[in-house]
Structures are given as C-alpha cells and as structure tokens.
Write a structure and sequence with these properties.
Layout (H helix, E strand, L loop, with lengths): L1 H15 L30 E7 L8 E5 L5 H15 L3 E4 L2 E5 L3 H10 L3 E4 L3
C-alpha cells in the first residue's frame, strides 16, 4: 500500500505544476479574450455630444466631447487636430476628449467638417 501512495503523490506533484485550482478573473493564457473590444466606426456613424463642464475641475471650464466608438490611437490624432484649432490643451479620458476652455461653439463645426455627427449638449 505504501507504494501506491508514493506513486499517486508523484503523479499529483507533476500535474499540480500546471493545474489551476482557483482563478477569479481571466487566465494568463488567453489575455486577448478579456481585452475590451474597440470598434473603429467611421466618423459618419458616430453621434458625438459636445458640452462645457466645470464639475470636479475647481471652477475651470472644460469642453467634453463624448460618444466616440473608436480606437485610442484615432482619438489621440483627433485630439491633436482639435487642440491646435482651439489653441489650448486637452486630454483623452475614458473614450472622451477634454479640451481646456469653453470651445463648444468652435468644435461642432470642426467635427462636422471632419465627418462626425456632433451636437451641443447641455446649457
């Protein structure tokens, strides 16, 4: 009987090296399956909302453009174009563009010229 236990232990130790007992989220072998799918829709199929906001920015006005369904690389290129047209800074946060200052009136015609459907949102 002692020999059967030793055989079982040796086989368990070999298989336990690559055996996962518990894993809450995802697996290291297939990280692509858990990445967020980024659709790169053409500009004419995207509905954008442009609004000026002051919330959480210590009273500073920021123009927020939301509703993008595109890759982060495309957003970075678009942000660079819009920042140069407005003459101000900005950033990309969670698939939205934030441009410093109140430029909503200036940005809507620029976005429609680039092929996007854009509307001013809020007051």
């Amino acid at each position: 009987m002692a020999s059967s236990k030793s055989n079982r232990k040796s086989s368990d130790s070999q298989s336990s090296e690559n055996r996962v007992v518990y894993q809450e989220f995802g697996s290291g072998s297939k990280p692509a399956a858990f990445e967020r799918a980024a659709q790169d829709l053409p500009p004419n199929q995207q509905d954008l909302r442009v609004q000026a906001s002051r919330k959480g920015r210590k009273g500073k006005t920021v123009t927020v453009i939301s509703g993008f369904q595109t890759t982060p690389e495309t957003l970075e290129k678009l942000l660079k174009q819009l920042k140069t047209q407005c003459g101000s800074g900005g950033t990309v946060k969670d698939n939205t563009l934030e441009i410093q200052g109140d430029h909503a009136q200036k940005l809507v015609p620029l976005l429609t010229q680039l092929g996007y459907k854009a509307k001013i949102s809020g007051g």
